[in-house]
Amino acid sequence: MEVIIKAKVKPTEDKYKVKKAILNIFPKAKLTFIEKDNEFGEWEGKTKSVEKLKELLRSQSILDAARMVLEKGMTENATKFYLNKQAAYVGAVNFDIDTHGGIFVKILADENEDIMKIIKDIAPRTKGGVIINEDELEEEEEKEDSEEIKEGHKEENNLKIKVIDNSSGD
Questions:
Q1: Quick one: DSSP state of residue 76?
Q2: What is the pTM of this model?
Q3: Where does the chain have alpha helices with state H?
Q4: Is there a single domain that holds both residue 91 and residue 109?
């Protein structure tokens, strides 16, 4: 897995505060500042670690919201989203819809990795605020579906019997 990070620095922003915002979420990121023109530039970087992001999502109890954002931004082998700079500056995760001012994050799966598995690791599903094992949940749902189908067949058989009973009573 590789994480690509980009954040534009507007003329009204301090480039080092923007850098701090990125490093608060991705402390192991290797960042480079690229001058775009006299007015602003952009921080670009990469990391392989999402540990701090995972920790913050859990401590802020926003795993389900994060999961929705990660799934919404998912492509075949990646997911992308934006983080709010101001929130990141104070060490918090807040997903941003402002594509012009946020921190752009793209998580790329390696060839032998499944992006959905990475998303499940970063933001697992919860039930009542507790992380649940999705594999067990899927097995449980399949079992419930199977039982519902069996019940449906029993009801159909009972209906057939009743129809036969009613027709023979004439």
A1: S
A2: 0.77
A3: 15-25, 51-59, 63-72, 85-89, 115-122, 134-168
A4: yes
Distances (CA, A) of 141 to 115, 124, 134, 138, 146: 23, 17, 10, 5, 8
Smallest CA-to-CA distance from 81 within 65, 91, 90 is with: 65
Question: Do 39 and 16 fall into the same domain?
Answer: yes
Q: Do 148 and 64 belong to one domain?
A: no
With tokens 């990391």, the residue in question is: 47
Tokens matching residue 71:
């799934």
Token pair of 77 as six digits: 């082998």
Distance, in Å, from the CA atom of 117 to the CA atom of 135, rounded to the nearest integer, reads: 11
Residue 79, class by beta-carbon neighbours within 10 Å (0-12 exposed, 13-18 middle, 19+ buried)? buried
Instruction: Output the 3-class SS for 127-169.
Output: ECCEECCHHHHHHHHHHHHHHHHHHHHHHHHHHHHHHHHHHHC
Q: Splitting the chain (170 residues) into consecutive groups of 10 residues, what average pLDDT does each group show?
A: 96 94 98 85 97 97 95 96 97 87 96 94 88 65 65 59 52
- Tokens standing for residue 35: 């001058």
Report the CATH number that the domain containing residue 64 is assigned in CATH. 3.30.1440.10
